[in-house]
Design goal:
- The chain is mainly alpha-helical.
- Helix content is 73%, strand content 2%.
- It is built from five helices and two strands, in the order H-H-H-H-E-E-H.
- Strands 1-2 form a two-stranded antiparallel ribbon.
- A hairpin with a 3-residue loop joins strand 1 and strand 2.
- Helix 2 runs antiparallel to helix 5.
- The chain is elongated.
Length: 192
């Protein structure tokens, strides 16, 4: 134990730990009041790029250009997910309960392991208070609108994108081809 570190068997340790967690949660609001605009601007930029890639891919008749813009669309969507990965990794470091080596244990795992220590009544009361707070809160990185950013949340969003993007692309392409066929019968070409 480093010199000056608090002993987890004493109530001061758990009082200090709870104060630090609450301070982190308070600071998170300050971070998002500044950083949310930049993050949402980045995600909006990625979204508009993806939209225009889909639009170009759906409206062109050249198969090679369609494939190129569809691949670009997938790349833009993946890069927007990659933007959120560091935030998800930080949340994992805070609250993951997945089995791992001691080196990679989350704050919640480390605090849970302290439950086996023999503590005095005051320390145990503060430990229970700390663990109650940890269990009640979404300790980690929380973004307004998206919620707590976790790796499983990113995977679920990527799965939705993987299912929706090709389907939307196909529906849009078929719709535009049908419009083009209708206009070709009247002498107007929509994709020219």
């Amino acid at each position: 134990q480093p010199k000056g570190a608090l002993d987890p068997l004493l109530q001061d340790f758990w009082i200090s730990a709870l104060a630090k967690v609450q301070h982190f949660e308070d600071r998170l609001h300050e971070v998002w009041s500044v950083g949310a605009v930049a993050l949402f601007a980045s995600l909006a930029s990625d979204g508009s790029q993806a939209f225009f890639c889909a639009l170009i891919a759906a409206t062109t008749t050249d198969f090679h250009i369609q494939v190129l813009f569809f691949m670009l669309l997938v790349f833009v969507c993946a890069s927007s997910m990659r933007t959120l990965y560091p935030l998800a990794a930080a949340t994992t470091r805070c609250q993951s309960m997945a089995p791992c080596s001691k080196k990679y244990r989350s704050i919640r795992q480390l605090a849970g392991a302290a439950g086996t220590l023999k503590m005095n009544v005051d320390a145990e009361t503060k430990y229970i208070t700390f663990m109650s707070h940890m269990d009640r809160s979404n300790f980690g990185i929380t973004i307004p609108v998206l919620g707590t950013v976790t790796i499983s949340m990113l995977i679920s969003k990527a799965t939705i994108l993987a299912a929706v993007v090709p389907t939307a692309f196909t529906v849009a392409r078929n719709y535009l081809q049908k419009i083009n066929e209708n206009y070709n019968h009247t002498g107007f070409n929509a994709t020219a």
